[in-house]
Amino acid sequence: MKVQRHAAIIRIVRRERVHNQEKLRELLHDEGIAVTQATLSRDLHNLGLSKVTDPAGGSFYAVPSAQLAPFPPVEQLVSTLLLSIDGVGPFAVVKTPPGSAEALGGSLDHASWEDVLGTIAGDDTLLIITRSEAARARVAKRLGDLAGIKS
After folding, report:
1. Which of 2, 41, 57, 96 could lock 100 by a disulfide, CB 3.0 to 4.6 Å apart?
2. Which of 147, 69, 51, 144 lies closest to 106, judged by CA?
3. Is 132 helix (H, G, I), strand (E, B) or coil?
4. Of 118, 99, 102, which Cα lies nearest the Cα of 27?
5. Which domains are assigned to the chain?
6. Distance CA 87, CA 141 (A)
């Protein structure tokens, strides 16, 4: 649940200017995620979110650059986020819990696996584009093995 909550926080902060924790709690609640103020405060710290000055006045939370806050390793996320994997040709389709595809895709993009050209993430579906059908099979097996499921 923590990984899904973190993904939702990042998605919300990228989507709109959030000026305070109470507003962020409301937006998370709108997405079905209940969180205490203390937990949200820890999440903001763990994610490295900081407040930046709003040219219109005040400040808002911002996601740090990728260099400052790298994605967690694929191995850390896949066991909790990968629900299923299937594919055709060089395309693998991964199902994740709602709100988690972006986190897993970003992690995989930053892992620099030789067989992976890139990913496209929706809410609960991740498209992995590989170099070939054989590469897709290797990626599916590797992810499945990490998650403890058969591809």
Report:
1. 96
2. 69
3. coil
4. 99
5. 2-62 (1.10.10.10), 74-147 (3.30.1360.40)
6. 12
* Token output for 15: 């989507």
CB neighbours (10 Å) of residue 78? Answer: 23
Pick out the chain residues at pLDDT < 70.
Answer: 65-71, 150-151
The answer to whether 72 and 65 have CB atoms below 8 angstroms apart is no
Surface-to-core class of residue 119, CB atoms within 10 Å of its CB (0-12 exposed, 13-18 middle, 19+ buried) = buried
> How do residues 62-103 score in pLDDT, each as one tens digit?
887 644 455 678 988 898 899 999 999 999 999 999 888 988
Instruction: Round to whole Å and give the CA distance between 125 and 121.
Output: 6
Q: CA gyration radius for the chain?
A: 17
Question: What is d(CA 138, CA 129) in angstroms, rounded to the nearest whole number?
Answer: 12
